[in-house]
Amino acid sequence: MIKTVIAYDIVEGVDEKEYNDWIVDVHAHDLLANPYIDRLLFNTVLRPVASSSGGASTITNEIVPYRVAEIHYADEDAYAKSLEWFKEHPIPPERGPAGRTKFYFYVVTSEVSIDRENLHSVDRVELQSPTGR
Q1: Residue 124 has pLDDT above 80, yes or no
Q2: N or C: which end of the chain has fewer CB atoms below 10 A?
């Protein structure tokens, strides 16, 4: 699985309830009409964190967005096909995020999940960036 991760705020002057109604009633429907998108995940920020676990590092939180959202895809091929699908089926501007959403970042990511069950068997190669960063 890969996903896009998007950090954003609501544009100043847009009512929060109206914005969230638009997300649920309009935008999620428009996005999920794309057959290559598997799932939408919306993480509303509750508060910034001032230091890392155990207090080892101070965190400045230069950006504290309203929300960090995720769009999930099966793989890189599905992501590429979703972009093509949107070229053929564009979301009408009046239904889109312009004028509603202030984006901070929008990135494509891979995911590796570590939990207590797989803690000792994680494939470290999967954690490496394919771009060599």
Answers
A1: no
A2: C
